[in-house]
Design a protein that fits this description.
This protein is globular. It is mainly alpha-helical. 68% of the residues lie in helices and 0% in strands.
Length: 238
């Protein structure tokens, strides 16, 4: 499914349709594809090796998409983030052994998991001092930030501003070079004031896109600010 189609659906579609129908199935599959890594990292932090964590994550999402089991979804607090981790824990306790036996080393794969990329990311993370649950919350927040930044980058490319965005991107993340505004202005051939204005606008749009991404994982869009606060606390505790 194209990204534009994904933008017209979100977690409320899955809950509202009780997991039935192609629209709900497609919405769920894309949400799972977007947010599988936090569960993979959770399984790795629990002590499972690379292959086991991959198999567990793959089997869980395949089972979820095919059965559309929403018994852990609370319509009053319909947060996909909480639903996923609760369901995954239950799956590991009650379903994993049976699922692995039925799959016999193969089985259905309804989402793509790049194990090399996942393990590279996991090895880069500092996980020794945090719990699997804290790691899950932190990686979920990072996934949201990454998706919002990618959408902003795509917008800028469509507007013919890819080169400008490449210079401004560092002001939107915590991993940039921290080059001063004057340096960026000189490289772009514009004034420092104009550079500051563009950074301000980029940050504002980044925030808007982040809120849109968060809303896609909620049943109630009014909970966006509460979810932002919860994710911020996840970063603080981790």
């Amino acid at each position: 499914m194209a990204q534009s189609t994904f933008r017209s659906t979100h977690w409320s579609v899955v809950l509202g349709a009780s997991g039935t129908g192609e629209v709900a199935r497609d919405a769920l599959q894309i949400l799972c594809t977007s947010y599988w890594y936090p569960l993979y990292a959770f399984a790795r932090r629990r002590g499972h090796d690379v292959d086991m964590a991959q198999d567990m994550t793959q089997a869980f999402f395949t089972n979820l998409i095919e059965t559309r089991d929403f018994q852990h979804a609370d319509p009053a607090r319909g947060r996909f983030r909480a639903f996923l981790i609760t369901s995954f824990k239950s799956f590991l306790v009650n379903e994993w052994k049976r699922e692995r036996t039925e799959r016999r080393g193969g089985g259905r794969k309804l989402i793509s998991i790049d194990t090399h990329d996942a393990e590279s990311r996991f090895q880069f993370e500092a996980v020794e001092s945090i719990t699997p649950e804290q790691l899950y919350q932190r990686d979920w927040a990072r996934a949201l930030l990454r998706h919002a930044l990618l959408r902003l980058e795509e917008e800028q490319q469509r507007a013919g501003r890819a080169e400008i965005f490449a210079h401004l991107r560092q002001f939107l993340t915590d991993s940039g070079s921290g080059a001063p505004y004057a340096t960026i202005a000189r490289e772009l051939g514009i004034t420092e004031t104009a550079t500051r204005v563009m950074v301000h606008r980029s940050r504002r749009r980044y925030g808007e896109l982040l809120r849109e991404e968060i809303a896609l994982t909620l049943a109630n869009r009014a909970e966006v600010e509460d979810e932002i606060q919860g994710l911020f606390e996840a970063f603080q505790s981790a």
